[in-house]
Design a protein that fits this description.
The complex is a heterodimer of chains A (about 325) and B (about 250). Chain A is of the alpha/beta class and about 325 residues long. Chain A has two domains: about 1-170, Rossmann fold; about 195-320, Rossmann fold (3-Layer(aba) Sandwich), CATH 3.40.50.1220. In chain A, about 30% of the residues lie in helices and about 30% in strands. Chain A contains eight helices and 17 strands. Chain A has a seven-stranded parallel sheet, sandwiched between helices. In chain A, α7 links the parallel β15 and β16 (about 280-285). In chain A, α5 packs parallel to α8. The N and C termini of chain A lie far apart (about 45 Å). Chain B is of the alpha/beta class. Chain B has helices at about 35-55, 70-80, 95-105, 125-135, 185-195, 230-240, and strands at about 1-5, 10, 20, 25, 35, 55-65, 80-85, 110-115, 140-150, 150-160, 160-170, 170-175, 200, 210-215, 225. In chain B, the strands form three sheets. Chain B has a nine-stranded mixed sheet with strand order 11-10-9-12-8-1-6-7-13, sandwiched between helices. In chain B, strands 2-5 form a two-stranded antiparallel ribbon. In chain B, strands 3-4 form a two-stranded antiparallel ribbon. In chain B, β9 and β10 (about 150-160) form a beta hairpin. The interface between A and B is large, with 97 and 80 residues. Bound molecules: flavin-adenine dinucleotide and adenosine monophosphate. Flavin-adenine dinucleotide binds next to α6, α7, β16 and α8 of chain A. Adenosine monophosphate (AMP) binds next to α1, β6, α3, β8 and α4 of chain B. Chain A: This is Electron transfer flavoprotein subunit alpha/FixB family protein.
């Protein structure tokens, strides 16, 4: 038995959450008594593929002819790899790629899908996987009743573990059919070289409390100092103070960084829904009654226009020392 | 264009989530239900806009029991022409997708529009499954769609950016923010919705591949540690030494 890890790539680079996927697959394989195999695509450096062994992959299959992220092709590729390797469990990251490919694969193989898994399977009574539901306000234990299973894990929820090893790399081809979709353009979200929000370990976010777009300089400075991505609340994106792709929450994107700093955001339940998976939350708000303080680990009751510049200085001093 | 839009029921976004029956069921008491925002604001409204611009029809489809009828009426009030309800408890994504795919296949739609995800189960599963069962192209997380005859130019979110693509009808699409602007139904729409056709259809046999065995709430957060605004150095220290995140 093998556990197959779907490893996503972008312009020849393995995405961050793919390492978590490989590590997860390796742990499940160990428990089930099998090996972790990775399937990937694109023009990736052989050394990078071998290095997946450090996260537990024994073998990496690569198809260099697939160059874009069209879900139907990627699902066919993954299904063919699963068949060759005799893999009954296939693992994805619950990101844009996983969200598009995993359900197609699930229907193709009639394999039950748990999307947004936050833990390893519990096999004491069947095959049960814990996942996020109600926009992070609760968890559900999903039992998978089929022999084949597809799991997509929420990024930054299970972590990854390093082991000793190098993976054996093999070219892999399969009949992927003709695509009925023609890709005409791909535009990168962060042309300014910033850190993509979905991949960021640290995030600095601000809301209506900042009064206007001209006041974001200190927020960007804080983010730059920390190596963090920037985010915002919905009204701020709606009125155009900040770009739409920064909008986090129930109707924006959901993130789970290690640190989320919220400045001048009240902490409405729809906002919390997108950030409540963060490991540590810091809130800076003038209003001690702001609901966000209830969800926070650390807080400063104070005026952002005074606190943030001070914080920038303090971080500078800290970084000079460390 | 003959358009089918998947409409699901979701608890209002402010709902405090609780469970009953030994944490085996979602406690619906006192919960206000709404149309899943992605279905209503983006998939449905874009479908209606296309119909308004070039004619055709918009039918909504919902897999559920009678309790979803008020939600279906809301979608009709926004401007769908008619509705279909597949009379089956929507327990599992594959079961739901099989129902939608079967109905769509029999009735020849040019496009099946869904939301990018339900805010209660956040599966992002149904769209891809419908496409696979129908053997149609799947365009996930679409934020823009323009039509020229039967050729659609679509922008979708991909990991790290946006992709523009072209595809001919028929296809299955899941809609995200940007696709359309929310429409608040007016009185006339609400009145008209009452007399629009809501057809109830028997489900086809379809497996449930997964089931929920229980629910749990996240552990309560401890009290927030407040830091004096005059002493932000302490916050930096705590983030470094205690939380170990910087
Ligand atoms: C269906 C639905 C979906 C939604 N989805 C989302 C979503 O995805 N994401 C989202 O963010 N919202 C969402 N919302 C909106 C949400 O309900 C809130 O309205 C929104 O999050 C509030 O944004 P805010 O905190 O920036 O602004 P406000 O609520 O106006 O809060 C501003 C805060 O700044 C503080 N403040 C003011 N001045 C200062 C200062 N000088 N220094 C420090 N603090 C200051 C105030 O005390 C206040 O707490 C949704 C709403 C609905 C109905
Ligand atoms: N019970 C249902 N009836 C009709 N459509 C549904 C149902 N459940 C989900 N959908 C559609 O499928 C989309 C994705 O749902 P999900 O895969 O559950 O996140 C939703 O946005 C709806 O458009």
């Amino acid at each position: 038995m093998a556990v197959l890890a779907f490893v996503d790539t972008q312009e020849g680079k393995i995405t961050k959450s793919s390492y978590e996927v490989v590590s997860y697959a390796a742990k499940v394989a160990e428990k089930e008594g099998g090996e972790a195999v990775a399937i990937t695509y694109g023009d990736v450096d052989n050394g990078d593929l071998e290095a997946l062994g450090k996260y537990g992959a024994k073998k990496v299959l690569i198809n260099k002819s697939v160059t874009n992220m069209l879900p139907t092709k990627l699902a066919k590729l993954t299904a063919a790899a699963a068949e060759q390797e005799g893999a009954d469990i296939i693992v994805f990251a619950q990101d844009f790629t996983g969200k598009s490919v995993a359900p197609i694969l699930s229907a193709k193989l009639k394999a039950g899908l748990v999307s947004g898994a936050v833990d390893y399977p519990d096999t004491t009574d069947g095959f049960v996987v814990k996942k996020n539901v109600f926009s992070g306000k609760a968890f559900a234990m999903y039992k998978v009743n089929t022999e084949k299973k597809v799991i997509s894990i929420l990024p930054n929820s299970v972590g990854k573990e390093e082991v000793d090893g190098t993976a054996q790399v093999e070219e892999f081809s399969a009949d992927l059919g003709d695509s009925r979709i023609t890709v005409t353009n791909v535009e990168k979200a962060n042309t300014d070289g910033g850190i993509p929000l979905t991949e960021a370990d640290l995030v600095v976010s601000a809301g209506r409390g900042l009064k206007g777009p001209e006041n974001w300089g200190m927020i960007e400075e804080l983010a730059n100092k920390l190596g963090a991505a920037t985010a915002c609340s919905r009204p701020v994106a709606d009125v155009g103070w900040r770009p739409h792709h920064e909008h986090v929450g129930q109707t924006g994107i959901a993130i789970r960084p290690n640190l989320y700093i919220a400045v001048g955001i009240s902490g409405a339940i729809q906002h919390l829904a997108g950030v409540n998976g963060s490991k540590v939350i810091v809130v800076i708000n003038t209003d001690p009654e702001a609901p966000f303080f209830k969800a926070a680990d650390y807080g400063i009751v104070g005026d952002a226009f005074e606190v943030v510049p001070k914080l920038n200085k303090a971080i500078e001093a800290f970084q000079a020392e460390n | 264009m003959k358009i089918l839009v998947g409409i699901s029921k979701a608890p209002d976004t402010t709902t405090k989530i609780k469970f009953t029956n030994d944490n085996k069921e979602f406690d619906e008491s006192g919960v206000q239900f709404i149309v899943n925002p992605y279905d209503e604001w983006y998939a449905l409204v874009r479908g209606i806009e296309i119909k308004e611009a070039q004619g055709g029809s918009v039918t909504t489809i919902t897999v559920g029991k009678e309790d979803v009828d008020p939600i279906i009426r809301k979608a009709l009030a926004v401007g769908a022409d008619d509705a279909v309800r597949i009379d089956s408890e929507p327990k599992d994504a594959f079961h739901v997708a099989s129902q939608i795919a079967n109905y769509a296949k029999e009735n020849d739609y040019d496009m099946v529009l869904l939301g990018k995800e339900t805010i209660n189960y956040n599966g992002s599963q149904v769209g891809g499954m419908v496409a696979e069962i129908m053997d149609l192209p799947y365009i996930s997380n679409a934020s823009k769609m323009d039509l020229d005859g039967n050729k659609a130019t679509i922008v979708r979110d991909i990991q790290g950016g946006k992709e523009t693509l072209e595809v001919e009808t028929p296809f299955v699409l899941s809609a995200a923010k940007g696709m359309a602007e929310q429409r608040i139904p007016n009185m006339r729409g609400i009145m008209a919705a009452r007399s629009k056709k809501l057809e109830v259809v028997e489900p086809v046999d379809a497996e449930e591949l997964t089931e929920v065995v229980s629910y749990a709430l996240p552990p309560e957060k401890g009290d927030v540690k407040l830091v004096d605004p005059e002493n932000v150095e302490e916050l930096v220290e705590l983030l470094h030494k205690e939380a170990k995140v910087i």
